[in-house]
Design a protein that fits this description.
With about 130 residues, this protein is an alpha+beta fold. It is built from five helices and three strands. Strand 1 and strand 2 form a beta hairpin. It starts with a strand and ends with a helix.
Length: about 130
């Protein structure tokens, strides 16, 4: 059995445990998954720190379109928002990073026209990439 013990920036602790062929998480599952994601990114020589995405993560472009919409809803068409959501969902599903999930939710709420919820997820995204 192999274990990776980690501490996050907010002080929580967790473990990734490889038991035979099974990977188990103890503590905060989202943070554990992010630690594993970052480890894999580093193995392939991509830059990744804390909750920062790997270089090929497209979350930035998804969040930027939502920010553009928040600044001026008339500057972005519904079709652009819908296409952005579709791409953000694919990116979040393939990377399983907290950053990509935050961009996914921001894109979702923009399509729904919910400014407050979209702002919340943009802020969460920005917290994660600090």
């Amino acid at each position: 059995m192999n274990e990776i013990v980690f501490g996050s920036e907010n002080g929580t602790m967790g473990k990734l445990i490889l038991d035979g062929e099974k990977l188990k998480f103890e503590g905060n599952v989202e943070e554990s998954a992010q630690v594993l994601f970052n480890y894999v990114c580093k193995m392939f020589n991509n830059s990744s720190f804390g909750t920062m995405p790997c270089k090929n993560d497209q979350s930035t472009e998804h969040i930027e379109l939502v920010k553009k919409w928040l600044a001026g809803p008339e500057s972005v068409s519904y079709q652009e928002l819908d296409k952005n959501l579709e791409a953000a969902v694919k990116a979040a599903d393939s990377s399983n990073s907290a950053v990509a999930k935050a961009a996914d939710w921001a894109a979702y709420w923009a399509v729904e026209g919910n400014v407050e919820r979209a702002k919340h997820w943009v802020e969460r995204y920005e917290e994660l990439v600090k």
